[in-house]
Amino acid sequence: MVVAAEVRRRKKTRGLPREGNDRENPFNRLPDECIAEIFSYNPDPTDRWLCAAVCKKFLLLQAHMKISDFKVKESANQSGAGDRMKRCLEGSHAMDTRLAAMAVCKWAKGIVGDLSIRGDFLVRKAASYSTRVPHGVTDCGLDIVGSGFPCLKSLALWGCLYVTNRGLVCVSRGCALLEKLDLCECPLITDEGMVAVARGLRKLTTLSVESCRNIGNSSLKAFGAYTPTLHSISVKGCRLVGDEGVFAILAGLPNLKRLKLAQLRANLRAVLALVRHCRALASLSLEGYSFDVATQNASGADVENKDVAFLDSPDLRSLARFRPVGMECSNLKSVSISGSWALNDEGLVAIGRGVGALEKFALEACHRVSFSGLVEFLSGYAKNLKSLSLTRCNAIVETSRSWAGLNSPPSCNKLETLMVGCCVLLGDAFLDWIGSVCSNLREVELIGLEQVSDRGLASLLMMGSGLEVRPIERVTLNGCTGLTDSSISEICRCFGPQLKSLSLGDCPRLSGHCLRVIAFYCTELRDLDVSGGTITDADLAHLHKMLWLTTLNLRNCPGLSQKAIDSFELSHFECDLVC
Protein backbone atom coordinates (compact mmCIF):
# COMPACT_ATOMS: atom_id res chain seq x y z
CA MET A 1 0.00 0.00 0.00
CA VAL A 2 1.26 3.48 -0.85
CA VAL A 3 0.64 4.88 2.61
CA ALA A 4 2.38 1.93 4.28
CA ALA A 5 5.37 2.50 2.05
CA GLU A 6 5.41 6.14 3.13
CA VAL A 7 5.47 5.02 6.79
CA ARG A 8 8.51 2.79 6.10
CA ARG A 9 10.21 5.57 4.14
CA ARG A 10 9.72 8.00 7.03
CA LYS A 11 11.36 5.56 9.43
CA LYS A 12 14.41 5.14 7.18
CA THR A 13 14.88 8.85 6.55
CA ARG A 14 14.11 10.10 10.05
CA GLY A 15 17.66 11.40 10.53
CA LEU A 16 17.78 13.42 7.28
CA PRO A 17 17.03 17.16 7.19
CA ARG A 18 13.30 17.87 7.19
CA GLU A 19 13.40 20.26 4.21
CA GLY A 20 15.01 17.68 1.99
CA ASN A 21 12.42 15.09 2.98
CA ASP A 22 9.59 17.47 2.15
CA ARG A 23 10.96 18.08 -1.37
CA GLU A 24 11.35 14.35 -1.98
CA ASN A 25 7.96 13.41 -0.51
CA PRO A 26 5.41 13.11 -3.31
CA PHE A 27 2.50 13.35 -0.87
CA ASN A 28 3.34 16.96 -0.11
CA ARG A 29 2.58 17.83 -3.73
CA LEU A 30 -0.89 16.26 -3.58
CA PRO A 31 -3.90 18.36 -2.55
CA ASP A 32 -5.70 17.39 0.65
CA GLU A 33 -8.68 16.09 -1.32
CA CYS A 34 -6.55 13.46 -3.06
CA ILE A 35 -5.00 12.25 0.20
CA ALA A 36 -8.44 12.07 1.80
CA GLU A 37 -9.64 10.05 -1.18
CA ILE A 38 -6.85 7.53 -0.56
CA PHE A 39 -7.73 7.32 3.11
CA SER A 40 -11.38 6.67 2.23
CA TYR A 41 -10.36 3.15 1.14
CA ASN A 42 -8.76 2.44 4.50
CA PRO A 43 -11.39 2.02 7.26
CA ASP A 44 -9.34 -0.42 9.33
CA PRO A 45 -8.58 1.17 12.76
CA THR A 46 -5.03 -0.17 12.97
CA ASP A 47 -4.10 1.07 9.52
CA ARG A 48 -5.69 4.45 10.15
CA TRP A 49 -3.67 4.88 13.33
CA LEU A 50 -0.42 3.94 11.53
CA CYS A 51 -1.16 6.47 8.83
CA ALA A 52 -1.94 9.15 11.41
CA ALA A 53 1.47 8.56 13.00
CA VAL A 54 3.23 9.69 9.80
CA CYS A 55 2.63 13.41 10.31
CA LYS A 56 0.23 15.92 11.78
CA LYS A 57 -1.28 16.56 8.35
CA PHE A 58 -2.32 12.91 7.98
CA LEU A 59 -3.69 12.94 11.52
CA LEU A 60 -5.91 15.98 10.98
CA LEU A 61 -7.15 14.80 7.59
CA GLN A 62 -8.33 11.50 9.02
CA ALA A 63 -9.79 13.12 12.12
CA HIS A 64 -12.14 15.20 9.95
CA MET A 65 -13.42 12.15 8.06
CA LYS A 66 -16.94 10.95 8.73
CA ILE A 67 -18.25 7.40 8.48
CA SER A 68 -19.99 8.26 5.22
CA ASP A 69 -16.65 9.33 3.68
CA PHE A 70 -15.29 5.77 3.53
CA LYS A 71 -15.72 3.86 0.28
CA VAL A 72 -15.13 0.50 1.99
CA LYS A 73 -17.26 -0.62 4.89
CA GLU A 74 -15.71 -1.73 8.18
CA SER A 75 -15.93 -5.32 9.35
CA ALA A 76 -18.55 -6.13 11.97
CA ASN A 77 -16.06 -6.46 14.83
CA GLN A 78 -14.51 -3.06 14.04
CA SER A 79 -17.63 -0.99 13.54
CA GLY A 80 -17.25 0.85 16.82
CA ALA A 81 -20.44 -0.59 18.28
CA GLY A 82 -18.87 -1.31 21.65
CA ASP A 83 -19.53 0.33 24.97
CA ARG A 84 -19.72 4.09 25.01
CA MET A 85 -16.59 5.73 26.35
CA LYS A 86 -16.16 8.75 28.61
CA ARG A 87 -13.22 11.00 27.87
CA CYS A 88 -11.93 14.07 29.70
CA LEU A 89 -9.23 16.41 28.37
CA GLU A 90 -7.95 18.69 31.09
CA GLY A 91 -5.30 21.38 31.33
CA SER A 92 -2.36 20.93 28.97
CA HIS A 93 -3.99 17.83 27.46
CA ALA A 94 -6.94 19.86 26.16
CA MET A 95 -5.57 20.39 22.65
CA ASP A 96 -6.88 19.96 19.11
CA THR A 97 -4.33 17.24 18.35
CA ARG A 98 -5.58 15.19 21.31
CA LEU A 99 -9.10 15.37 19.93
CA ALA A 100 -7.80 14.38 16.51
CA ALA A 101 -5.98 11.35 17.90
CA MET A 102 -9.08 10.39 19.85
CA ALA A 103 -11.23 10.62 16.72
CA VAL A 104 -8.89 8.34 14.76
CA CYS A 105 -8.31 5.63 17.37
CA LYS A 106 -11.77 5.52 18.92
CA TRP A 107 -13.02 3.00 16.37
CA ALA A 108 -10.88 0.24 17.88
CA LYS A 109 -12.11 0.86 21.44
CA GLY A 110 -15.75 1.88 21.17
CA ILE A 111 -17.79 5.03 20.68
CA VAL A 112 -17.18 8.29 22.55
CA GLY A 113 -20.47 9.19 24.20
CA ASP A 114 -19.35 11.60 26.93
CA LEU A 115 -16.67 14.24 26.32
CA SER A 116 -15.41 16.89 28.79
CA ILE A 117 -12.86 19.57 27.88
CA ARG A 118 -11.56 21.62 30.79
CA GLY A 119 -9.01 24.43 30.78
CA ASP A 120 -6.93 25.16 33.88
CA PHE A 121 -4.89 28.02 35.37
CA LEU A 122 -1.81 27.25 33.29
CA VAL A 123 -3.82 27.43 30.11
CA ARG A 124 -5.33 30.77 31.14
CA LYS A 125 -1.95 32.20 32.12
CA ALA A 126 -0.37 31.12 28.87
CA ALA A 127 -3.27 32.58 26.91
CA SER A 128 -2.92 35.95 28.63
CA TYR A 129 0.73 36.29 27.61
CA SER A 130 0.63 34.77 24.15
CA THR A 131 -1.08 36.16 21.07
CA ARG A 132 0.50 33.90 18.48
CA VAL A 133 -0.65 30.32 19.06
CA PRO A 134 -3.83 29.52 21.04
CA HIS A 135 -3.22 27.29 24.06
CA GLY A 136 -6.18 24.93 24.25
CA VAL A 137 -9.04 23.64 22.15
CA THR A 138 -10.11 25.85 19.24
CA ASP A 139 -12.83 25.75 16.60
CA CYS A 140 -10.69 23.25 14.66
CA GLY A 141 -10.97 20.84 17.59
CA LEU A 142 -14.74 21.20 17.77
CA ASP A 143 -14.90 20.66 14.00
CA ILE A 144 -13.16 17.34 14.65
CA VAL A 145 -15.72 16.57 17.36
CA GLY A 146 -18.56 17.26 14.94
CA SER A 147 -16.99 15.05 12.27
CA GLY A 148 -15.58 12.22 14.36
CA PHE A 149 -18.03 11.80 17.23
CA PRO A 150 -21.47 11.34 15.65
CA CYS A 151 -22.75 9.36 18.65
CA LEU A 152 -21.78 11.98 21.25
CA LYS A 153 -24.49 12.50 23.86
CA SER A 154 -22.80 14.75 26.42
CA LEU A 155 -20.36 17.63 25.84
CA ALA A 156 -18.84 19.93 28.47
CA LEU A 157 -16.66 22.92 27.56
CA TRP A 158 -15.10 24.64 30.59
CA GLY A 159 -12.65 27.49 30.23
CA CYS A 160 -12.31 27.11 26.45
CA LEU A 161 -11.11 30.64 25.73
CA TYR A 162 -10.66 30.19 21.96
CA VAL A 163 -13.90 28.42 21.04
CA THR A 164 -16.24 30.62 19.00
CA ASN A 165 -19.63 30.30 17.35
CA ARG A 166 -18.06 28.49 14.40
CA GLY A 167 -16.95 25.58 16.57
CA LEU A 168 -20.33 25.35 18.25
CA VAL A 169 -22.06 25.29 14.85
CA CYS A 170 -19.84 22.36 13.79
CA VAL A 171 -20.95 20.44 16.87
CA SER A 172 -24.63 21.18 16.24
CA ARG A 173 -24.33 19.92 12.66
CA GLY A 174 -22.38 16.74 13.36
CA CYS A 175 -23.60 15.60 16.78
CA ALA A 176 -27.32 15.27 16.21
CA LEU A 177 -27.70 12.86 19.14
CA LEU A 178 -26.33 15.32 21.72
CA GLU A 179 -28.51 15.40 24.84
CA LYS A 180 -26.43 17.37 27.35
CA LEU A 181 -24.45 20.58 26.75
CA ASP A 182 -22.46 22.32 29.49
CA LEU A 183 -20.71 25.64 28.78
CA CYS A 184 -18.64 27.44 31.41
CA GLU A 185 -16.45 30.51 30.87
CA CYS A 186 -16.43 30.47 27.09
CA PRO A 187 -16.20 34.23 26.41
CA LEU A 188 -16.21 34.11 22.60
CA ILE A 189 -19.51 32.25 22.27
CA THR A 190 -22.43 34.57 21.55
CA ASP A 191 -26.16 34.32 20.90
CA GLU A 192 -25.51 33.46 17.26
CA GLY A 193 -23.85 30.17 18.15
CA MET A 194 -26.45 29.31 20.78
CA VAL A 195 -29.29 29.89 18.33
CA ALA A 196 -27.61 27.45 15.93
CA VAL A 197 -27.43 24.90 18.76
CA ALA A 198 -31.10 25.37 19.58
CA ARG A 199 -32.10 24.82 15.95
CA GLY A 200 -29.73 21.93 15.25
CA LEU A 201 -29.85 19.84 18.42
CA ARG A 202 -33.45 18.72 18.58
CA LYS A 203 -32.74 15.98 21.14
CA LEU A 204 -31.10 18.26 23.72
CA THR A 205 -32.52 17.63 27.20
CA THR A 206 -30.05 19.37 29.53
CA LEU A 207 -28.44 22.79 29.08
CA SER A 208 -26.04 24.51 31.49
CA VAL A 209 -24.51 27.93 30.81
CA GLU A 210 -22.24 29.62 33.37
CA SER A 211 -20.18 32.81 33.24
CA CYS A 212 -20.49 33.21 29.46
CA ARG A 213 -20.53 36.99 29.21
CA ASN A 214 -21.76 37.24 25.60
CA ILE A 215 -24.78 34.95 25.92
CA GLY A 216 -28.05 36.80 26.48
CA ASN A 217 -31.81 36.72 26.10
CA SER A 218 -31.79 35.74 22.41
CA SER A 219 -30.24 32.38 23.29
CA LEU A 220 -32.93 31.53 25.82
CA LYS A 221 -35.63 32.66 23.40
CA ALA A 222 -34.27 30.28 20.79
CA PHE A 223 -34.25 27.32 23.16
CA GLY A 224 -37.78 28.14 24.26
CA ALA A 225 -38.91 28.19 20.62
CA TYR A 226 -36.93 25.38 18.95
CA THR A 227 -36.01 22.83 21.66
CA PRO A 228 -39.13 21.39 23.25
CA THR A 229 -37.17 18.36 24.53
CA LEU A 230 -35.33 20.46 27.16
CA HIS A 231 -36.25 19.44 30.70
CA SER A 232 -33.29 20.92 32.62
CA ILE A 233 -31.78 24.42 32.25
CA SER A 234 -29.14 26.14 34.39
CA VAL A 235 -28.04 29.72 33.74
CA LYS A 236 -25.54 31.35 36.09
CA GLY A 237 -23.51 34.55 35.95
CA CYS A 238 -24.57 35.59 32.42
CA ARG A 239 -24.91 39.35 32.73
CA LEU A 240 -26.88 39.78 29.48
CA VAL A 241 -29.69 37.46 30.59
CA GLY A 242 -32.71 39.19 32.11
CA ASP A 243 -36.48 39.00 32.45
CA GLU A 244 -37.09 38.61 28.72
CA GLY A 245 -35.00 35.46 28.38
CA VAL A 246 -36.27 33.87 31.60
CA PHE A 247 -39.89 34.45 30.64
CA ALA A 248 -39.25 32.95 27.18
CA ILE A 249 -38.02 29.73 28.77
CA LEU A 250 -40.88 29.43 31.24
CA ALA A 251 -43.49 30.24 28.60
CA GLY A 252 -42.01 28.18 25.77
CA LEU A 253 -41.10 25.02 27.71
CA PRO A 254 -44.19 23.86 29.61
CA ASN A 255 -42.56 20.47 30.28
CA LEU A 256 -39.48 21.96 31.94
CA LYS A 257 -38.64 19.98 35.09
CA ARG A 258 -35.50 21.64 36.45
CA LEU A 259 -34.56 25.31 36.29
CA LYS A 260 -31.65 27.08 37.97
CA LEU A 261 -31.15 30.85 37.67
CA ALA A 262 -28.21 32.33 39.56
CA GLN A 263 -26.59 35.77 39.62
CA LEU A 264 -28.87 37.28 36.99
CA ARG A 265 -30.63 40.61 36.65
CA ALA A 266 -34.30 39.72 36.74
CA ASN A 267 -37.46 40.50 38.66
CA LEU A 268 -37.79 37.80 41.31
CA ARG A 269 -41.46 38.52 41.96
CA ALA A 270 -42.35 38.09 38.30
CA VAL A 271 -40.32 34.89 38.02
CA LEU A 272 -42.03 33.32 41.03
CA ALA A 273 -45.44 34.36 39.70
CA LEU A 274 -44.77 32.65 36.38
CA VAL A 275 -43.24 29.55 37.99
CA ARG A 276 -46.55 28.74 39.67
CA HIS A 277 -48.06 28.01 36.25
CA CYS A 278 -45.31 25.50 35.34
CA ARG A 279 -46.93 22.39 36.72
CA ALA A 280 -44.18 20.06 35.49
CA LEU A 281 -41.42 21.99 37.25
CA ALA A 282 -39.93 19.79 39.97
CA SER A 283 -36.64 21.58 40.57
CA LEU A 284 -36.28 25.34 40.97
CA SER A 285 -33.20 27.29 42.04
CA LEU A 286 -33.10 31.08 42.32
CA GLU A 287 -29.79 32.20 43.75
CA GLY A 288 -27.76 35.37 43.99
CA TYR A 289 -30.27 37.63 42.25
CA SER A 290 -29.54 41.29 41.49
CA PHE A 291 -32.91 43.02 41.43
CA ASP A 292 -33.90 45.69 38.95
CA VAL A 293 -35.90 47.58 41.57
CA ALA A 294 -33.27 47.44 44.32
CA THR A 295 -29.82 46.22 43.43
CA GLN A 296 -29.16 44.19 46.57
CA ASN A 297 -27.83 40.68 46.96
CA ALA A 298 -30.52 38.05 47.24
CA SER A 299 -31.16 34.42 46.63
CA GLY A 300 -33.98 32.03 46.24
CA ALA A 301 -34.93 28.45 45.88
CA ASP A 302 -33.44 25.09 45.13
CA VAL A 303 -35.78 22.24 44.36
CA GLU A 304 -34.18 18.99 43.34
CA ASN A 305 -36.72 16.32 42.41
CA LYS A 306 -39.51 17.68 44.56
CA ASP A 307 -37.04 19.61 46.73
CA VAL A 308 -36.90 23.30 47.58
CA ALA A 309 -34.32 25.49 49.28
CA PHE A 310 -34.53 29.20 50.12
CA LEU A 311 -31.61 31.53 50.55
CA ASP A 312 -31.94 35.02 52.03
CA SER A 313 -33.69 37.68 49.97
CA PRO A 314 -35.08 41.13 50.75
CA ASP A 315 -38.25 40.01 48.97
CA LEU A 316 -38.67 37.06 51.32
CA ARG A 317 -38.49 38.89 54.64
CA SER A 318 -42.04 38.20 55.67
CA LEU A 319 -44.10 35.21 56.63
CA ALA A 320 -46.29 35.68 53.55
CA ARG A 321 -43.35 34.71 51.35
CA PHE A 322 -43.13 31.25 52.95
CA ARG A 323 -46.81 30.33 52.93
CA PRO A 324 -46.97 29.85 49.12
CA VAL A 325 -44.27 27.20 49.38
CA GLY A 326 -46.60 24.89 51.23
CA MET A 327 -49.67 25.96 49.27
CA GLU A 328 -48.20 25.60 45.78
CA CYS A 329 -45.73 22.78 46.52
CA SER A 330 -47.60 20.49 48.88
CA ASN A 331 -45.93 17.38 47.41
CA LEU A 332 -42.36 18.47 48.20
CA LYS A 333 -40.12 15.73 49.54
CA SER A 334 -37.19 17.83 50.72
CA VAL A 335 -36.76 21.37 52.05
CA SER A 336 -33.39 23.05 52.61
CA ILE A 337 -33.12 26.60 53.98
CA SER A 338 -29.73 28.29 54.05
CA GLY A 339 -28.63 31.69 55.31
CA SER A 340 -32.12 33.14 55.60
CA TRP A 341 -32.84 35.98 58.03
CA ALA A 342 -36.44 35.85 56.88
CA LEU A 343 -37.19 32.45 58.35
CA ASN A 344 -38.41 32.46 61.94
CA ASP A 345 -40.48 30.04 64.00
CA GLU A 346 -43.75 31.12 62.38
CA GLY A 347 -42.35 30.71 58.88
CA LEU A 348 -40.99 27.29 59.76
CA VAL A 349 -44.38 26.14 61.00
CA ALA A 350 -46.07 27.66 57.92
CA ILE A 351 -43.90 25.50 55.67
CA GLY A 352 -44.57 22.42 57.81
CA ARG A 353 -48.34 22.86 57.63
CA GLY A 354 -48.38 22.86 53.84
CA VAL A 355 -45.67 20.32 53.07
CA GLY A 356 -47.22 17.20 54.52
CA ALA A 357 -45.07 14.73 52.56
CA LEU A 358 -41.76 16.18 53.77
CA GLU A 359 -38.99 13.56 54.06
CA LYS A 360 -35.77 15.63 54.21
CA PHE A 361 -35.29 18.91 56.06
CA ALA A 362 -32.14 20.99 56.43
CA LEU A 363 -31.43 24.32 58.16
CA GLU A 364 -28.15 26.17 57.74
CA ALA A 365 -27.24 29.52 59.30
CA CYS A 366 -30.88 30.39 60.03
CA HIS A 367 -30.39 32.52 63.13
CA ARG A 368 -34.05 33.34 63.86
CA VAL A 369 -35.28 29.78 64.38
CA SER A 370 -35.41 28.93 68.07
CA PHE A 371 -35.45 25.68 69.98
CA SER A 372 -39.21 25.94 70.64
CA GLY A 373 -39.96 26.55 66.96
CA LEU A 374 -37.91 23.54 65.92
CA VAL A 375 -39.63 21.37 68.53
CA GLU A 376 -43.07 22.51 67.38
CA PHE A 377 -42.18 21.84 63.76
CA LEU A 378 -40.81 18.36 64.43
CA SER A 379 -43.58 17.41 66.82
CA GLY A 380 -46.50 18.49 64.69
CA TYR A 381 -45.47 18.41 61.05
CA ALA A 382 -42.70 15.83 60.62
CA LYS A 383 -44.54 12.54 60.64
CA ASN A 384 -42.84 11.45 57.38
CA LEU A 385 -39.44 13.02 58.06
CA LYS A 386 -36.51 10.70 57.36
CA SER A 387 -33.55 13.11 57.44
CA LEU A 388 -32.87 16.18 59.63
CA SER A 389 -29.83 18.45 59.24
CA LEU A 390 -28.99 21.48 61.42
CA THR A 391 -25.84 23.49 60.66
CA ARG A 392 -24.64 26.73 62.28
CA CYS A 393 -28.06 27.66 63.68
CA ASN A 394 -27.00 29.82 66.62
CA ALA A 395 -30.51 30.73 67.78
CA ILE A 396 -31.38 27.13 68.67
CA VAL A 397 -30.47 27.49 72.34
CA GLU A 398 -31.31 25.03 75.09
CA THR A 399 -33.14 26.29 78.16
CA SER A 400 -34.08 24.81 81.50
CA ARG A 401 -37.63 24.22 80.29
CA SER A 402 -38.81 20.64 79.94
CA TRP A 403 -39.44 20.07 76.27
CA ALA A 404 -40.76 16.56 76.67
CA GLY A 405 -44.16 17.84 77.73
CA LEU A 406 -44.49 20.31 74.85
CA ASN A 407 -45.09 17.84 72.09
CA SER A 408 -48.22 15.83 71.56
CA PRO A 409 -47.49 12.22 70.61
CA PRO A 410 -44.02 12.17 69.01
CA SER A 411 -44.12 12.14 65.22
CA CYS A 412 -40.45 11.54 64.31
CA ASN A 413 -40.48 7.76 64.39
CA LYS A 414 -39.47 7.62 60.71
CA LEU A 415 -36.33 9.73 61.22
CA GLU A 416 -33.30 7.72 60.09
CA THR A 417 -30.58 10.36 59.58
CA LEU A 418 -29.64 13.10 62.07
CA MET A 419 -26.92 15.65 61.32
CA VAL A 420 -26.05 18.49 63.74
CA GLY A 421 -22.99 20.54 62.86
CA CYS A 422 -21.39 23.54 64.58
CA CYS A 423 -24.49 24.46 66.59
CA VAL A 424 -22.30 25.47 69.49
CA LEU A 425 -25.15 26.11 71.95
CA LEU A 426 -26.71 22.65 71.63
CA GLY A 427 -25.88 19.96 74.17
CA ASP A 428 -27.34 17.11 76.13
CA ALA A 429 -30.85 18.58 76.51
CA PHE A 430 -31.41 18.60 72.75
CA LEU A 431 -30.09 15.06 72.40
CA ASP A 432 -32.36 13.96 75.25
CA TRP A 433 -35.41 15.35 73.47
CA ILE A 434 -34.54 14.12 69.97
CA GLY A 435 -33.70 10.70 71.38
CA SER A 436 -37.11 10.48 73.05
CA VAL A 437 -39.07 11.03 69.82
CA CYS A 438 -36.91 8.97 67.39
CA SER A 439 -36.63 5.22 67.49
CA ASN A 440 -35.30 4.31 64.02
CA LEU A 441 -32.09 6.30 63.74
CA ARG A 442 -29.53 4.69 61.44
CA GLU A 443 -27.02 7.49 60.83
CA VAL A 444 -25.94 10.04 63.46
CA GLU A 445 -23.53 12.87 62.64
CA LEU A 446 -22.53 15.30 65.41
CA ILE A 447 -19.79 17.76 64.44
CA GLY A 448 -18.25 20.42 66.66
CA LEU A 449 -20.71 20.01 69.57
CA GLU A 450 -18.43 20.80 72.49
CA GLN A 451 -21.25 20.76 75.08
CA VAL A 452 -22.29 17.17 74.36
CA SER A 453 -21.24 14.71 77.04
CA ASP A 454 -21.35 10.95 77.41
CA ARG A 455 -24.78 11.19 79.07
CA GLY A 456 -26.36 13.10 76.15
CA LEU A 457 -24.93 10.75 73.57
CA ALA A 458 -26.23 7.75 75.52
CA SER A 459 -29.71 9.32 75.65
CA LEU A 460 -29.69 9.80 71.90
CA LEU A 461 -28.38 6.40 70.89
CA MET A 462 -29.64 4.10 73.64
CA MET A 463 -33.14 5.61 73.97
CA GLY A 464 -32.49 6.57 77.56
CA SER A 465 -33.15 3.23 79.22
CA GLY A 466 -30.81 1.18 77.04
CA LEU A 467 -33.34 -1.64 76.87
CA GLU A 468 -34.04 -1.15 73.18
CA VAL A 469 -31.21 -0.87 70.67
CA ARG A 470 -31.54 1.34 67.61
CA PRO A 471 -30.44 0.13 64.14
CA ILE A 472 -27.40 2.46 64.15
CA GLU A 473 -25.01 1.86 61.22
CA ARG A 474 -22.97 5.09 60.95
CA VAL A 475 -21.76 7.37 63.74
CA THR A 476 -19.74 10.58 63.27
CA LEU A 477 -18.55 12.48 66.36
CA ASN A 478 -15.84 14.75 64.99
CA GLY A 479 -14.95 17.68 67.23
CA CYS A 480 -17.11 16.57 70.18
CA THR A 481 -14.48 17.40 72.77
CA GLY A 482 -16.59 16.42 75.77
CA LEU A 483 -16.75 12.71 74.94
CA THR A 484 -14.63 10.11 76.71
CA ASP A 485 -13.80 6.43 76.29
CA SER A 486 -16.93 5.49 78.23
CA SER A 487 -19.41 6.56 75.53
CA ILE A 488 -17.35 5.05 72.70
CA SER A 489 -17.13 1.73 74.54
CA GLU A 490 -20.89 1.75 75.02
CA ILE A 491 -21.45 2.47 71.31
CA CYS A 492 -19.21 -0.42 70.31
CA ARG A 493 -20.82 -2.77 72.79
CA CYS A 494 -24.37 -2.01 71.62
CA PHE A 495 -23.93 -1.44 67.91
CA GLY A 496 -20.61 -3.12 67.10
CA PRO A 497 -21.92 -6.02 64.99
CA GLN A 498 -24.00 -3.68 62.79
CA LEU A 499 -21.75 -0.60 62.72
CA LYS A 500 -20.34 0.21 59.26
CA SER A 501 -18.68 3.60 59.83
CA LEU A 502 -17.25 5.30 62.92
CA SER A 503 -15.59 8.73 62.91
CA LEU A 504 -13.86 10.04 66.06
CA GLY A 505 -11.70 12.81 64.64
CA ASP A 506 -10.44 15.64 66.90
CA CYS A 507 -11.76 14.16 70.15
CA PRO A 508 -8.82 14.83 72.53
CA ARG A 509 -10.28 13.03 75.56
CA LEU A 510 -10.34 9.68 73.78
CA SER A 511 -7.42 7.35 74.43
CA GLY A 512 -5.95 4.37 72.64
CA HIS A 513 -8.21 2.10 74.68
CA CYS A 514 -10.96 2.87 72.15
CA LEU A 515 -9.10 1.05 69.40
CA ARG A 516 -8.95 -2.15 71.40
CA VAL A 517 -12.70 -1.98 72.06
CA ILE A 518 -13.43 -1.17 68.42
CA ALA A 519 -11.34 -4.10 67.21
CA PHE A 520 -13.13 -6.47 69.58
CA TYR A 521 -16.78 -5.48 68.98
CA CYS A 522 -16.99 -3.88 65.51
CA THR A 523 -16.70 -6.93 63.29
CA GLU A 524 -18.41 -5.26 60.28
CA LEU A 525 -16.71 -1.85 60.46
CA ARG A 526 -15.47 -0.58 57.10
CA ASP A 527 -14.57 3.09 57.72
CA LEU A 528 -12.72 4.35 60.80
CA ASP A 529 -11.49 7.88 61.53
CA VAL A 530 -9.26 8.55 64.57
CA SER A 531 -7.49 11.61 63.19
CA GLY A 532 -6.14 14.16 65.62
CA GLY A 533 -6.05 11.61 68.43
CA THR A 534 -3.48 10.54 71.01
CA ILE A 535 -3.05 6.95 69.80
CA THR A 536 0.38 5.30 69.81
CA ASP A 537 2.06 2.44 67.98
CA ALA A 538 0.84 -0.04 70.60
CA ASP A 539 -2.75 1.18 70.14
CA LEU A 540 -2.56 0.82 66.37
CA ALA A 541 -1.45 -2.79 66.79
CA HIS A 542 -4.96 -3.67 67.98
CA LEU A 543 -6.33 -2.88 64.52
CA HIS A 544 -4.11 -5.40 62.72
CA LYS A 545 -6.77 -8.08 62.97
CA MET A 546 -9.40 -5.85 61.32
CA LEU A 547 -8.64 -7.07 57.80
CA TRP A 548 -12.05 -5.91 56.54
CA LEU A 549 -11.28 -2.18 56.91
CA THR A 550 -11.47 -0.21 53.66
CA THR A 551 -10.64 3.30 54.99
CA LEU A 552 -8.55 4.35 58.01
CA ASN A 553 -7.80 8.00 58.80
CA LEU A 554 -4.68 8.51 60.95
CA ARG A 555 -4.00 12.12 60.03
CA ASN A 556 -2.47 14.40 62.69
CA CYS A 557 -1.63 11.61 65.13
CA PRO A 558 1.81 12.63 66.50
CA GLY A 559 2.09 9.52 68.68
CA LEU A 560 2.39 7.22 65.67
CA SER A 561 5.72 6.36 64.07
CA GLN A 562 6.23 5.84 60.36
CA LYS A 563 7.37 2.27 61.06
CA ALA A 564 4.03 1.37 62.66
CA ILE A 565 2.09 2.96 59.80
CA ASP A 566 4.15 1.09 57.21
CA SER A 567 3.61 -2.17 59.05
CA PHE A 568 -0.15 -1.67 59.10
CA GLU A 569 -0.22 -0.70 55.44
CA LEU A 570 1.75 -3.82 54.54
CA SER A 571 -0.79 -6.13 56.20
CA HIS A 572 -3.82 -4.14 54.95
CA PHE A 573 -2.95 -3.48 51.31
CA GLU A 574 -6.65 -3.10 50.38
CA CYS A 575 -7.24 -0.43 53.02
CA ASP A 576 -7.16 3.22 51.98
CA LEU A 577 -4.82 4.72 54.58
CA VAL A 578 -4.99 8.49 55.17
CA CYS A 579 -1.95 9.89 57.00
Question: How would you concisely characterize the structure shown here?
Answer:
With 579 residues, this protein is an alpha/beta fold.
Average pLDDT confidence is 77
CATH class designation of the domain at 302-472: Alpha Beta
Report the portion of residues in β strands: 15-25%
What CATH architecture of the domain at 302-472 would you give? Alpha-Beta Horseshoe
How are the strands ordered across the major sheet? Answer: 11-12-13-14-15-16-17-18-19-20-21
Helix content: 25-40%
Structural class: alpha/beta
- Tell me the major beta sheet: 11 strands, parallel
Number of strands: 21
Number of H/I helices: 22
Q: State the shape.
A: flat
Q: What is the CATH superfamily classification of the domain at 302-472?
A: Ribonuclease Inhibitor
CATH topology group of the domain at 302-472: Leucine-rich repeat, LRR (right-handed beta-alpha superhelix)
Rg, nearest Å: 31 Å
Instruction: Identify low-pLDDT runs.
Output: 11-22, 76-82, 121-134, 289-320, 404-409
